[in-house]
Amino acid sequence: MFHVFQYQPLRLITQNSLSSMCLKLMLSRPVAFAQIWKSWFSSHSLLGKKNIILMGPPGAGKTTTGRIVGQKLDCPVIDIDDDVLEPTWNMSVSEKLQDLGYEEFLEEEGKALLKFSASGSVISLSGSNPMHAAGMQHIKKNGIVVYLDVPTAVIISRLKSKGTDRVVGLSPGVSLKDVLQFRKQFYKRWFDIRVLCGEDVAAEVVAEKVLDAVKRYQDSELETFISTRSGRSGRNMEEDSHKLYFSDVVIQGLALDGGLFVPERGLPKFTAEEWQGLIEATYIERAQVILERCIHPADIPASKLAEIIETAYGENFSCSKVAPVRHLAGNQFLLELFHGPTASFKDFALQLVPHLFAYCIPRSCNYLILVATSGDTGSAVLDGFSRLHDTDKQRIALVNFFPEDGVSQIQKSQMIGCQKENAWSVGVKSDFDFCQTAIKQIFTNSDFTGFLTVEYGTALAAANSINWARLLPQIVYHASAYLDLVHQGIISFGSPVDICIPTGNFGNMLAAFYAKMMGIPIRKCICASNENNVLTEFIRTGVYDLRGRKLISSFSPAVDILKSSNLERYLHLIANEDGQLVTQLFNQLENQGHFQLRKDLLGKLQQDLVAGWCSDEDCLAAIHSVYSTTGYILDTHTAVAKVVADRLQDRTCPIIISSTAHYSKFAPAILRALRIAEINQNPLSQLHLLSSYSALPPIHWGLLETLKKTGNGDHQVCAADMSVLMSHIETLIQNHFM
After folding, report:
1. What is the CATH code of the structural domain delimited by 51-218?
2. Which residues form the Threonine synthase N-terminal domain (predicted)?
3. Model-level pTM?
């Protein structure tokens, strides 16, 4: 058996001279000595008895990178091809491959790996090692597997320039691209950490990225969360002893002080080379890379995260591109976010979050998810949680509160039709702001939540956009839209774009801003409001004023919102995490109905955001105009964004308009915009009439199926009273969990 034992860097033969040198340095330059010792200790404690195992396709640079990492850590370096396989076989790898053939070679290679053992080393695998399951299970037991993820086109170019023909699986009729694509499934199965490697990135840089990634992997303490109503400067010892991680905030939803969770050290940043490496990637591949950097593997391992992402986006979306970008006219492009099962952008988060939640929660407790919706969230969250495995449904249930008379008839039919054995809808005789505020108050009512835990063994959690996990999938599609424009040749990477989003609760807009912070070249984020334009006025003036404001029902109900919850996260960011200021502002809003930003903060805000609004009449006119000129039907929310984009864009760069819902969900308004005189009140009849137009995009398949199933489905309705809502919650818990 081939053994390599842990390397001892402090050699006894140099002990006296080393001690003398250290003593002199410590006495003469104590700060320099401390820095050198800290650096040495950090490097060697990084490895310990574990191995760093470099994995990737042939041509990824594993051998060169491994040597540099080994030098930096002062530890043994082992190349499986050169140091294990060839000495074992007494012949070159290429000769062995030619002698045995593809399948027998993989088996022999795997057997050699099973006999191999090492400790405290840097190991460079062969490109085909990951295809032998038993061999990889053996070597992974004592190591951290680092995947050097190099774009396929770059690998092909490198191998051709070297004249390499020693690639396992390459044969007549099978291209190198096919071989490399086939292998990706095995690399994805085994890695713990992914390191993105661009075309022109030096091996020294890759080695540093490997070391940084291993440090991150081993230290989850680096990725904690704080409340927007606290801050690093305001943390006390008690808070430090109760650090919160991704899995904690997914479960808890809302901070105990009423604030929203944000990552204490901010979001990860991608280099331009790393983003460019994703241009050729699929949507699912982009999602995995981005989310891996936002979710620590101690919370959700990369392999499990990949499984969850594949489940969420693999088959539940009607378009293979998941979130395609379509040219509308001039410099305007539509980001179509309605191809999920319930026909709105909410599906991107709510096909994913239920599985994240189910993985993160402890098995010892039942959970009831509380949701408030202004329309689209309801059916999306009901559908998402109803797709959990049966064992998870037994311990996770959901109740969705929505304004009984504040959503479209089709939206209401969807929410009724999406009810399942663990998911229910409750109409509230009020507006969305009441529903959202009520849920926040319930979460901060420790007497009630404590009673539910003690009496029924059930905890409450949130799945609204106030939950941090809801925002991450939205970052993905904004980044992906930009990469798609680069892939289509519309722009080159680094060229700016503007983003225009119909905005109510500010979550979608915040996600676009986060994508910008992570390195996507977004110039301006344009907020588009309907007549409930409190957010537009705030962005223009710095005054958030709800005094005397009443919610106006519009043709774009998902943005019929006066209190934008996620705005708090943005203000916390531009205020340099001044939790005290954020607390003051939102307490004033709650108690006095208004607040005003300082002049310096308003200046920062207006560098990032611009805003406009449009009336219902302008919205319908835009729908009619676009259909008349292009044959494409916008939904009412996208039309709001289109009107605002037309008014505010300067046409010096492309603008991506978020198409947040399918027009089928708002059939009466669409038919009115298309100037249909008589409109049947039956939602199914309305959709059939719309389908007769043969417009783009076609009628949404999932929506049509849901409405066919709904029939005379029923739901509960309650008064706008906190005690009534809490009574409903208790009854649902009794019925489902007891």
Report:
1. 3.40.50.300
2. 240-313
3. 0.89
